[in-house]
TrEMBL record:
Protein's name according to its UniProt entry: histidine kinase
Domain of life: Bacteria
Transmembrane spans: 35-53, 59-80, 92-112, 118-134, 165-185
SUPFAM superfamilies hit by this protein: ATPase domain of HSP90 chaperone/DNA topoisomerase II/histidine kinase, Homodimeric domain of signal transducing histidine kinase
GO molecular function: phosphorelay sensor kinase activity
InterPro entries, sorted: HATPase_C_sf, HATPase_dom, His_kinase_dom, HisK_dim/P_dom, HisK_dim/P_sf, Sig_transdc_His_kin-like_C
Enzyme Commission code: 2.7.13.3
Keyword annotations of the record: Coiled coil, Kinase, Membrane, Phosphoprotein, Transferase, Transmembrane, Transmembrane helix
Length: 471
């Protein structure tokens, strides 16, 4: 029987899975089931009115039996299901709830006259209630059918019939009711098992997908961090190269200082100093001091700007900042890289645009776009112009456009430009993550929108719409 039920899809081979299904199947929508049990107890007792019509002299005994079943079995079984410690035995409680009134009904018809002539109708009502309103499995319904039909047949043998052939009719009707109900119960259980297994498989797949997603997010975070460090590395190299020039000039000037001071010292020590020599020495020292001050100021500005940009890119803090000075600082750190390649940068941004956003993510976006243009838009030896334009879009949004006049993007590559690991410069060390990270930062972190347009031989423009305040 066990193997047959498995083959019919009415039992799971795994005992733990079977227990989980039984618990789910019998306790699903428990409140509705308890309401049906209360209704069943009421209907069982209300049929005493039919008993009065059939046999007034036996009505008192029949009503007493009905009330006893309701008070001692039906109502307590319904209330018992409200206890959490009794719910693991829910199917046994349902079985007792069904079998007792089904068997007692046969006893009641013994006392009634004309006895079992109407017994089949009463038992069919019980069968209908059990098969439609209570969550019994096929095996439990089979136990109910065997016990109640055996009891009915047993009591029918000691009853009298006005028509002796009615016993055969009763059992034929009851047998048909059992068969049809058994099929209905089996179909309902089969569908429930299939849904239970599908739900379980979906849950497993969901957990697997969530685990995979967590791994992908962790990998993405590592890639973003690596890309940030790579961009910072390029900024460091460019800024270091740029700082070398003013510091070198300041060092050369200070060396000349030392020479002029030594010459002046020797002249003063000789006691033959002329006004023209003194004036010339002072002028040279003044000019040198100006050069040293100008070059050290330039170096200090570069370091300060780079420090702010580096702090923004290394952290993910949200803060309020003005767009124009922030963008000027950022472009000053990119300027050494762009100017070394011979490119020109044009910045257009009105004053007074305040953003409450993530400057680190925005700096990463602008840096990646600028470096991407250097690498891909302009072939080796060719120079061009990079235009960064910022404008208002009402009171709640701004639009940033980063445009180059490079060679453009071929039509077949435009749909894949934001795909991870897609690159046409892998031979130059590109990973294909720069624009993918730009897209994710704009959409996920900055809560904006990004679009790209390009024409071969004309250039490429990236348009980014950002909220003034990140929601």
């Amino acid at each position: 029987m066990h193997k047959l039920l498995i083959q019919l899809g009415l039992r799971f081979d795994d005992p733990h899975e079977e227990q989980s299904f039984v618990r789910s199947f019998t306790l699903d929508d428990l409140g509705r089931t308890q309401a049906a049990m209360v209704l069943g107890a009421f209907v069982f007792c209300s049929f005493s009115a039919m008993d009065w019509i059939l046999s007034p002299d036996a009505w008192a005994m029949a009503t007493a039996l009905r009330l006893a079943v309701a008070v001692l079995v039906l109502v307590p079984a319904t209330l018992l299901l409200s206890r959490p410690d009794a719910r693991p035995f829910a199917e046994w409680i349902y079985l007792v709830y069904c079998v007792v009134p089904g068997c007692m009904l046969s006893l009641i018809y013994v006392f009634l006259r004309p006895s079992f002539d109407h017994g089949a109708a009463g038992l069919i009502v019980v069968i209908l209630f059990v098969s439609t309103l209570l969550p019994l499995r096929v095996s439990s319904f089979g136990v109910f059918a065997v016990l109640t039909w055996t009891c009915f047949a047993l009591f029918e043998t000691i009853a009298t019939h006005d028509n002796p052939g009615l016993a055969l009719v009763n059992n034929a009707e009851i047998g048909a009711a059992y068969a049809l109900s058994l099929y209905g119960v089996g179909a309902r259980e089969f569908r429930a098992r299939r849904q239970f297994r599908t739900t379980g498989e979906l849950q497993v797949e969901k957990e697997r997908s969530e685990a995979t997603l967590a791994e992908l997010r962790a990998a993405q975070a590592q890639l973003v961090q690596a890309e940030k460090l790579a961009a910072l590395g390029q900024l460091v190299a460019g800024v270091a190269h740029e700082i070398n020039t003013p510091i070198g000039l300041a060092l050369t000037t200070s060396t000349a200082f030392d020479h002029d001071l030594a010459e002046l010292r020797r002249t003063v020590a000789s006691g033959q100093i002329r006004r023209s020599d003194l004036t010339r020495s002072v002028d040279r020292l003044s000019e040198g001091a100006g050069l040293v001050f100008a070059n050290l100021t330039r170096a200090a500005d570069l370091v300060q700007n780079f420090k702010q940009v580096a702090v923004d890119q290394a952290t993910e803090d949200r803060r309020r900042f003005e767009m124009r000075p922030w963008l000027t600082e950022l472009m000053s750190t990119l300027d050494p890289i762009l100017r070394r390649k011979g490119h020109e940068v044009r910045l257009t941004c009105p004053d007074g645009i305040l953003l409450d956003s993530y400057p680190g993510a925005l700096a990463q976006v602008v840096s990646n776009l600028a470096l991407n243009a250097v690498i891909h838009a302009f072939p080796e030896g060719r120079t061009g112009t990079l235009l960064v334009d910022v404008s208002r879009l009402g009171d709640t949004q701004i639009r940033m456009t980063v445009r180059d006049d490079g060679r453009g993007i071929p039509p077949e590559n435009r749909q894949r430009i934001f795909d991870p690991f897609f690159t046409t410069g892998r031979d130059k060390g590109s990973t294909g993550l720069g624009l993918h990270i730009v897209y994710n930062l704009v959409v996920s972190t900055l809560r904006g929108q990004i679009a790209i347009d390009s024409e071969e031989g004309v250039g490429t423009g990236v348009t980014i719409d950002l909220p003034v305040t990140v929601p």
